[in-house]
Specification:
mainly alpha, Helix Hairpins, Monooxygenase, globular, HscB_oligo_C
């Protein structure tokens, strides 16, 4: 798995993100195009290519969603651009309830406490799904990991919407 190799990390869903960030900074310093400003054109081009590769790898590996997508893709299952719907009836029902709850919060005049409570709920759901993805990937249950990842994508999207709502309510 090339992206993990760039940072000399074991190809695993569970990575130390602070270690990843440190290795990223070290590699950026070593391969930053400015370091090669007085070099030949081929050295400059190579440094730029390497810096771009490092940036792409870091962006992918720092996010649990894109990291899981990358691992699945490396194992022959590309779900990064799919439009597959989740067929789990209980999760679909939960999605509807979460959406309704988000609407209720947006209609509140003082939504702060409800936002915090919902953030906690979604964070717990995210942790649970990430743990499932980790287990499934470790056990090479790629379809199950993909299913949990689809759910995680929904939760992450809902968290972003809740964050926007929190920003809007703070501006009122």
């Amino acid at each position: 798995m090339k992206f993990f190799e760039i940072f000399n990390l074991k190809p695993d869903f569970d990575i130390d993100v602070s270690l990843l960030s440190q290795k990223y900074r070290d590699l950026q310093r070593a391969f930053h195009p400015d370091q090669y400003a007085s070099g030949s054109e081929s050295e400059k081009l190579l440094a730029l290519k390497k810096a771009t590769e490092i940036n792409d790898a870091y962006t992918t590996l720092k996010s649990p969603v894109s990291r899981a997508e990358y691992i699945l893709k490396e194992n022959g299952l590309d779900i990064s651009h799919e439009t597959t719907t989740i067929k789990d009836p209980s999760f679909l029902m939960q999605q509807m309830e979460y959406r309704e709850h988000l609407e209720e919060i947006s209609d509140m005049t003082e939504p702060y406490d409800a936002i915090i409570e919902f953030e906690d709920t979604l964070s717990a759901e995210q942790v649970e799904l990430q743990e499932k993805i980790s287990r499934d990937l470790r056990n090479a249950h790629h379809q199950e990991a993909a299913s949990a990842l689809r759910k995680l994508k929904f939760i992450v999207k809902l968290q972003a919407e809740l964050e926007r709502l929190e920003d809007q309510s703070g501006q009122l």
